[in-house]
Amino acid sequence: FLTYDELQTVMKKKFTIPRLELVRDVFVFACFTGLAFSDVASLNKENLVQDNLGDWWIRKGRVKLERIRKSSSIANVPLLPVPLAILKKYESHPICLKQGTCLPVVCNQKANSYLKEIADFCGIKKNMTTHAARHTFATTVTLANNVPLQEVSAMLGHASTRMTQHYARVMDRNLKDNMNIVRSK
After folding, report:
1. What is the pTM assigned to this prediction?
2. Intra-chain end-to-end CA distance of the chain, in Å
3. Which segments in the chain show pLDDT lower than 50?
4. What values do phi and psi take at 166, rounded to 5?
5. How far apart are CA 13 and CA 168, in angstroms?
6. Residues 135, 115: Cα–Cα separation, whole Å
7. In 3D, which of 25, 32, 15, 13 has the Cα closest to residue 96?
């Protein structure tokens, strides 16, 4: 997963190569929604729902590739300003209009190849992949900001929190914050 600083570096990097800008935008979108690559690629306007307060949500059946049988769960994610801006940026993109999708997503293999280039341009030494975005959402965007594991699990579309714990990483900042609370008591 990316740290907060690494995510900010990727978000702020200016790219003159359109394919890198597009892949970066799709990656950042996944970092702020927790959607798996296949779910981002198949996201369409029917998956975007506005609640009574005017806030936008993604409500989408997860695309799962199971070995034996297909199973499905629902990803239910409130949209933050960053992914909303990315959706707006691409709403009239020719590929989106042609395919009926929200984002013009390249194949996973190309995306991962381009993400390696993006990591190099940003000075990130980690193996940036499309799946790293899901880990970044779970760890850096939600759990590091004290979103309860159960709620992260619901947004990821997991059937149980046991599945979500795979994404949970112990963050030094959280350890320090918690120990400071103990110290003050």
Report:
1. 0.86
2. 33
3. 65-70
4. -60, -35
5. 27
6. 15
7. 25
